[in-house]
Amino acid sequence: MTLSVTGVSTPAKRLLATLLPIVLLSAPLPLLAQPATSSVGDEPVSNELPLEDIQTFAEVFERIKRAYVEEVDDRTLLRNAMRGMLSELDPHSAYLDEEEYQSLRESTQGEFGGIGIEVGTENGQLMVITPIDDTPASRAGLQSHDIIVAIDGTPTDSISLQEAVTLMRGEPNTEIRISVLRSGEDTPREFTLTREIIRSESVKHELLEPGYGYLRISQFQSRTPDQAREALERMAQDQPLEGLILDLRNNPGGVLQAAVGITDLFLDEGLIVYTEGRLSDTEMSFSASPTTPASDVPLVVLINGGSASAAEIVAGALQDQRRGVIMGTDSFGKGSVQQIMPLGNGEGLKLTTALYYTPNGRSIQAQGIEPDVEVVRGRLEVAEGRREIREADLEGHLSAQQAPRDRQEMAERLLDDYQLSEALNLLKALNVVDRQRR
């Protein structure tokens, strides 16, 4: 069989000479004239690379080399081609150069340099999924669903997601300017942030009241389940927990196994999550283990539009297993699984390989988790006007002792966070109902 490269110049012929062996490895020569197929699921998939398209690719490569206004080296062109292949698949697949690959690995371990923000793309726009707690981004007031239109004057519609992440990361104590368009506003807001070493502790905890715990998970890292288990043990030291609020608001996700580990803290049996993809090694299933520290503590889970990916796995599993009450607003809706694949040159791929499903078979992708009780974020306000006379209004009344400062601060916090206040009220109501039943 003769493979024609007529009309293609010498540089492109050399490129074809490199690419054609891939075709021959992909399908035996006798099958090149007739597409070979293999069945993956219910759809036939061709094993043959199209020679005509490969020839067109080589021709485009050659014309860029010869006619582009600036000289571009072969390595840059090939890297750009690979980036293009992945970026057109979905917003979460990407080609990672060595620096990007190392940066992603660091972020899953909980330490990296930057402003502390999780971003994605929607309709071709760079969007804030969520700022990470106690970072320059969260302190500056960046919010979920903000659209980043420029980074240091560079329009984001002209760069890839990975390039945007690279621009935002950098040396500590260096400044970065971000232009943000917020929903309902016509003029972008300008933020000047100072980069820091982001040492993200993913778990925080405290007692809101005696017996009522608060567990905040800001993202899912490899250490998160162990940290959460320790937090539960500390909160239950003085007395058993009568209720727990698990706060997953503005949690962008993270490591799948960490989400499974967190869910397993509250379930002693049953399915947590399963994944389905084209390849057998992407089909996984995770179930709860019988040993768990908090299998019977009344539970309320807080979510919002910034709760994504692994956070949605936890909320979806607890909802399907009727283990807790999901409260807040609809979650983000990222139900895909990415694998980080190292390459031989020190670089890597971040490739979407599967979708994950809740125990009842719900796909979260582009759907999200709907809360059992919808509560929008707001602030409690004391109504002005006529009110009933109370003991404190009577002349000569006895004064009570001043409440401890930490109790005052907690009361102010509950006023500022309506969702958290409602979650605590619900836990108390659940305990009242439970006592009456017993």
Question: Keywords for this structure?
Answer:
alpha+beta, Pdz3 Domain, six-stranded antiparallel β-sheet, six-stranded mixed β-sheet
Structure description:
Among the domains are: 117-199, Pdz3 Domain (Roll), CATH 2.30.42; 203-374, 2-enoyl-CoA Hydratase, Chain A, domain 1. The chain is built from eleven helices and 21 strands. The protein has helices at 10-26, 51-67, 74-87, 98-109, 136-140, 161-168, 224-235, 256-264, 310-320, 405-416, 418-437, and strands at residues 37-40, 43-46, 94-96, 111-114, 117-122, 125-131, 147-151, 154-155, 175-181, 189-194, 196-199, 203-209, 212-217, 243-247, 271-277, 285-287, 299-303, 325-328, 336-342, 348-357, 373-374. Strands 5, 6, 7, 8, 9 and 10 form a six-stranded antiparallel sheet that branches. Strands 12-13-14-17-18-21 form a six-stranded mixed sheet, sandwiched between helices. Strand 9 and strand 10 form a beta hairpin. The termini are far apart. Residues 1-7, 21-42 and 382-387 have low confidence and may be disordered.
